[in-house]
UniProtKB/TrEMBL annotation:
Its EC number is 2.1.1.198. Belongs to the methyltransferase superfamily. RsmI family. This is Ribosomal RNA small subunit methyltransferase I. It holds the Pfam family TP_methylase. It comes from Rhodovulum bhavnagarense. Catalyzes the 2'-O-methylation of the ribose of cytidine 1402 (C1402) in 16S rRNA. GO terms for molecular function: rRNA (cytosine-2'-O-)-methyltransferase activity. It is found in: Cytoplasm.
């Protein structure tokens, strides 16, 4: 594995870092960490350790702590460094710096200031969890950490209960039992879900079942590590699929597949691509 050290053009580089296994990092991420003029890190010790694992010398480059509790002046300083011609690599403690951390405000301010923003994609706990949960991934709503206060948290869950998408939450080990109980109560005990813990790490755990089953299993259970909770679509999606197929069968009996797809998509307010795929299955072409 060759790490390329070459000058980077000025700008902010959002670099995804491993959520567990250190070897999950990309070659481009290593190249950027080796070449950037400045390293902005959620945890500078973690960033230094990761670079050390992969044989990247920190040298005399500045390491600047940039996290949720950083003063606005820190963000302004990073933007000013990029404006002055420096390359700034931004890394979270783990995962993609734009997900559930201060990456967004830095990107927003950099773009407003005319600074180039680059992405070095890679590990993400959300995407890793979707890969192993066994829940639909064609429509996904990422919700991050639910509010700590009971009132706002309940309102949030009520607002998303009817969303026809897989819901993705991050949660701390101390609060996950409470979240599961409230999800079961508000979204329904029979709704399919999965809890993913310590993904890519030694004690990785994926528990699948209904919200009621997960709430019961984790009630009072002491858990550790990083947790992602995923909730599948409600039962009305199944009914909607059945309605779509019935409507397609009737419409296809009257005319062409193209006309049937247009008719059903308009009548049921569904994406045309989704209806077209269903029509192909009915015709036995997929």
């Amino acid at each position: 594995m060759e790490i390329i050290r070459s000058p980077l053009s000025p700008g902010i580089y959002f670099v995804a870092t491993p959520i567990g296994a250190a070897r999950d990092i990309t070659l481009r991420a290593l190249d950027i960490l080796a070449s950037a003029d400045v390293i902005a890190a959620e945890d500078t010790r973690t960033a230094r350790h990761l670079m050390q694992i992969h044989g990247i010398a920190a040298g005399e480059r500045p390491f600047i702590a940039y996290h949720d509790h950083s003063a606005p002046g820190v963000r302004a300083k990073l933007v000013q460094m990029a404006q002055a011609g420096q390359s700034v690599a931004c890394v979270s403690e783990a995962g993609t710096p734009m997900v559930s951390d201060p990456g967004y405000p830095l990107a927003r301010d950099a773009i407003a200031a005319g600074v180039a923003v680059h992405a070095a994609p890679g590990p993400s706990a959300m995407l890793a969890a979707l890969s192993v949960a066994g829940l639909p991934s064609d429509r996904v709503m990422f919700l991050g950490f639910a509010p700590a206060q009971a009132g706002p948290r309940k309102r949030m869950l009520e607002e998303v209960a009817g969303q026809q998408a897989t819901l993705v939450f991050y949660e701390s080990p101390r609060r996950v039992s409470r979240l599961l109980g409230e999800l079961a109560e508000i979204l329904g005990h029979d709704r399919q879900a999965a809890l993913c813990r310590e993904l890519t790490k030694r004690f990785e755990e994926v528990v699948r079942g209904t919200l009621g089953e997960l709430a019961e299993e984790f009630a009072g259970r002491e858990v550790k590590g990083e947790i992602v909770v995923l909730v599948g679509r409600g039962s009305d999606v199944v009914a909607a699929q059945e309605d779509m197929q019935a409507a397609l069968v009737a419409a296809m009996a009257r005319g062409s597949t193209k006309d049937a797809v247009a008719e059903v998509a308009a009548a049921l307010k569904l994406p045309r691509r989704e209806v077209y795929q269903a029509a192909l299955k009915l015709e036995g072409k997929t």
